[in-house]
Write a structure and sequence with these properties.
By secondary structure, the protein is an alpha+beta fold. It has three domains: 152 residues, Beta-Lactamase, CATH 3.30.450; 102 residues, Signal transduction histidine kinase, dimerisation/phosphotransfer (DHp) domain (Helix Hairpins, Orthogonal Bundle); 154 residues, Histidine kinase-like ATPase, C-terminal domain (Heat Shock Protein 90, 2-Layer Sandwich). The chain is 54% helix and 15% strand. The chain is built from nine helices and eleven strands. Strand 1 and strand 2 form a beta hairpin. The longest helix has 58 residues. InterPro entries: HAMP_dom, HATPase_C_sf, HATPase_dom, His_kinase_dom, HisK_dim/P_dom, HisK_dim/P_sf, Sig_transdc_His_kin-like_C, TCS_sensor_his_kinase. It is an enzyme of class 2 (transferase). It catalyses: ATP + protein L-histidine = ADP + protein N-phospho-L-histidine. Its main location: membrane.
């Protein structure tokens, strides 16, 4: 990029244009002046000749005729038929003498006389040369005055660019918040200044986002390390204790330590797996969409929960709905929601999975709904309204939480990857407890199933 001074560039460009335009204008003016002067001289000579013819027809005396047609710059010579010559002496036409010869047709004494009208063209050439000098002097003066005016005026004209430069340097120096704030945005400088401000808004917004992301990442890494420290410490303690006890350790004590090793290793593995799932969500999931029956997935989670928590009651309510989704990810969403409800209800509780779609019963069955909803609700203490968004933050634990604090963020990430939503709210029936509403784009509608107990 050529970085020659803009002031110098504009000044030189204006002067070059002026140096080209002034000579062309001067030549045009001189040519017009010369042509007009020539035309005026011919008109004057022909007009005087016509006047002489009129005076001759009026029988004006020769001397009076000469006096009346005499004019500045014109030499009048009248030669009568008898050879008598009146007026100025006859001159021979040359390059500098323009002459008109006329034979008079009227009058007793002027009939047949010869009238010579002579004009010295050197006067016109002198006037042309004078005009040329004036044009040259005025052109030179115009160039000098224009150059000085440009040098002084460019400081004022380029003041907005200086303001942009100063602002850019202040931003580079670390100062934020400055803006040009143009008074008008319908001019070139106004549009440039507005675009400059928009660029600064975007840059500062990106900077704030980057700082927030960096701070969030640091906090997330610190929390993840803290969460991993507990199972790792448990593994280390159990392993060291086993080594210290040796082969002669009591069987009950050895079995207890081995169970601790298995439990803590599973806990650490689960946490690592959840962290990997979050990393995949952040990087962008690749889903394998296929028709999925929600009731079958919900029933599988109910069967699993009856095995791991037999004191809990699980109910599947609603229609057998079809969605186009990734079955593995959808299974993980339901598993996280059901496990979250199990932890919230303690050692025993009632968990309900409601399957519904937004169409009324009178709508034709061939017309599919736009979305379906899966509501997982429990009869636990519920989630306060102030914490209903906070529970979806990473590594956030509730009062009864027994997991890693990553299940709900993972579930919401999978829901959003499917083009759906996941929120926490009150139970639709108004009873105590929490409800997590999963909304997904719907697939083709299937037949109704009776409500399961």
């Amino acid at each position: 990029m050529n970085t020659v001074s803009l002031r110098r560039r504009v000044t030189l460009t204006a002067l070059v244009v002026l140096l080209v335009v002034l000579p062309i204008t001067g030549l045009a003016v001189k040519a017009i002046f010369d042509a007009q002067a020539e035309r005026n001289l011919n008109t004057l000579l022909n007009g005087r000749a016509q006047l002489a013819q009129q005076l001759a027809r009026q029988n004006v005396a020769p001397a009076a005729l000469v006096r009346r047609i005499d004019a500045d710059g014109i030499r009048v010579t009248l030669i009568l038929r008898n050879g008598q010559q009146l007026g100025a002496p006859e001159v021979v036409p040359t390059g500098e003498i323009r002459q008109v010869r006329v034979t008079l047709q009227g009058g007793q004494r002027t009939r047949g006389a010869t009238l010579l009208l002579s004009a010295d063209t050197s006067l016109l050439e002198g006037a042309s040369r004078t005009l040329q000098r004036v044009l040259l002097l005025s052109g030179a003066a115009a160039v000098v005055i224009t150059a000085l005016a440009l040098i002084l005026g460019m400081r004022f004209a380029l003041a907005p660019l200086d303001a942009m430069t100063s602002l850019a340097r202040s931003i580079a120096a670390g100062r934020r918040g400055g803006r040009l704030q143009p008074t008008r945005t319908d001019t070139e400088l106004g549009r440039t200044a507005a675009a400059f401000d928009e660029m600064l808004d975007s840059l500062e917004g990106a900077e704030r986002t980057a700082r927030g992301s960096e701070q969030y990442l640091r906090q997330f890494v610190a929390d993840a390390a803290h969460e991993l420290r507990t199972p790792v410490t448990g593994l280390q303690t159990a392993a060291e204790t086993l080594l210290q006890l040796g082969p002669n350790a009591p069987a009950e004590r050895r079995e207890e330590l081995e169970l601790l090793l298995v439990r803590e290793s599973r806990r650490a593995g689960s946490l690592v797996a959840d962290l990997l799932e979050l990393a995949r969500i952040d990087a962008g999931l690749v889903l394998r969409h296929q028709p999925v029956q929600l009731r079958a997935l919900a029933q599988a989670q109910a069967d699993r929960l009856r095995l791991v928590a037999p004191n809990h009651t699980v109910r599947i309510l609603g229609s057998d709905l079809m969605v186009n989704a990734d079955p593995d990810r959808l299974t993980q969403i339901l598993a996280n929601l059901v496990d979250n409800a199990r932890h919230a209800t303690g050692d025993a509780g009632v968990i309900e999975v409601l399957l519904s779609s937004p169409w009324p019963e009178e709508r034709p069955s061939a017309q599919a709904p736009q979305y379906v909803q899966v509501v997982v609700q429990d009869n636990g203490p519920g989630v306060p309204p102030s914490d209903r968004e906070r529970v979806f933050q990473r590594l956030v634990h509730g009062e009864r939480s027994r997991g890693s604090g990553l299940g709900l963020p993972i579930a919401r990430g999978f829901a959003q990857a499917h083009g759906g939503t996941l929120i926490c709210t009150d139970r639709p029936d108004g009873r105590p407890g929490a409800a997590f509403v999963l909304t997904l784009p719907a697939g083709p509608r299937t037949a109704e199933h009776p409500t399961a107990p």
